[in-house]
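Researcher: Structure prediction, please.
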Amino acid sequence: MAAGEKRRRMPRPLAVADLLATVLHGQPAEKRLQEGKIWLVWDGTVGPAIAAQARPSGFRDGVLTVMVANAPWMQQLTFLKRDIMARLNARLGCDLITDIYLRAGRPEMPPVTVKTSPPAPRQLSTAEQEQIAEQTATVVDQELRDAIAGLLGRHLASRVNDNKS
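Model: Predicted structure follows.
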């Protein structure tokens, strides 16, 4: 690579789900992977009001079993079954669901995940900044040197104390 030329960016890594879909294409497990997507798209497809009262609990031979919290919601969802089925199939990209079976019961809610922000990185000491400059001084490519220095800086700043590890 000649001086002054910029290195071409690497492509972004593929999502594991996309890799699995590619590997399992044409295999019996491909259908199972597609069926598993029902749980992932449920909330976004039916909306928060229905998702709070009804959740998928099983899938077999094209029939999606949905647990519904109470009788009024069961009746309401009976009228919406065809629409929900059509929207789910559209979201899944195939006619996977042929019917929805509604069951009375307590819908299991997905676990709530609490997002916490990481602590703010601390400022690097002068000695740490000099250490980074020393360790990256031999890297000829400026863009690569900056990237390595950035990684080293973030690593050092993420450590809680100044003890060397």
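Model: The chain has a mean pLDDT of 82.
Researcher: Thanks, that helps.
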